[in-house]
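Usage

Read records sequentially. Each one opens with the input sequence:
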Amino acid sequence: MPSTTDLTRLAAHEMATRLRQGEASSREIVEAHLAVAERQNRALNAWLSIDRERALEEADAADARFAAARAEGPAALDALHPMLGIPVALKDLVSVRGGQATAGSRILEGYLAPYDAHITERLHDVGAVILGKTNMDEFAMGSSTEFSGYGPVSNPWDLDTVPGGSSGGSAVAVAARHVPVAIGTDTGGSIRQPAAMCGVVGMKPTYGRVSRYGIVAFASSLDQIGPFARNTRDAAALLHAVAGRDERDSTSAPVPVPDELLDLPASDDEAASWLRGKRFGLPRQYFVAGMEPDVERRIRAAVDALAAAGATVEDVSLPHTDYGLATYYIVAPAEASANLARYDGIRYGPRAAADDVLGTYLRTRGSGFGPEVKRRIMLGTYALSTGYYDAYYVKAQKVRTLIKKDFDDVFATG
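and closes with the structure output:
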């Protein structure tokens, strides 16, 4: 039997191969990852909850599915999803029936989700094993995972540095080999930035590609669920598992999920063949003053590697890029102000004692929300208030349309 170290160092697709061939069991893989996560979490604070009992039950169920498929024959084994039996972590704003969903906030402490999110259902369908819920910036508002109501998360490469955020716990869990893959959410960089800071793969899928049903909302027109992994093949397999149309989310895209996600190149030669003839755009506005020289060198090296593989990398222009951050900091807080109005101490989480309903509402929100969430609620409420709505929110939405048109224009030239 492989050692604990061997199992946690495998990529998810390598685990899948061993599982199909009967060289390892899902229980062995899950126990190995649980041991590392439980041992390291005191130092990293990446996890807000680990459900060992449920995880092992799901692992045993996965092993039973493998056994049944082996008995049926090769075709049955080939039909199994590559995420079957693979450990996965969920950011703690994903609903899992009967489990906590704090969104990193004290105002949701003790709240237990009464239903599964769409992505939870999809993970259960393919047989992935959910180990638990990861730490995050409160309500996904932050870029360092220092603004959690349950303490900051440390970067596994240097405990004195931050892992990025808001999905810092998920990024750390993957980087520290607590799980091979994890789920995060991205509103304004909350997957991509911690992935970069922890040295793992992370992507924000196109808006609507993954249903937001059962996800605690921050900014509904910007939030999107996406994968973390230690390589692109595993990230693609996890995305394949959770993506797809969901009638309960009106913004969910009615676009089939391509099986090509499960057939990405497995070698450099295959990658070169796959890339040949593909076209990539490189926005000139993204090379800003103050960019770290090493970052630019690595981007240029990646461009050279793509070109060497036969891809075409074209210089493109997104002229309204400079307005993106200002637009985001009007639109996102405005939507947060509306979404977070529901947390009043009556329906969710702890309730602060007061003499009347209004007092309960004010005291609960005052004590339950952290400083970063309060700041963004105030900013968003101001942008939506009488006399400022047209000057700020409406104008920001108009600029957002111009930013989107930049991308439409570039893709239209293809």
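Summary fields computed downstream for this record:
- The chain has two domains: 4-266, 277-414.
- The beta strands are 47-50, 87-91, 129-134, 181-186, 201-202, 224-229, 279-283, 312-316.
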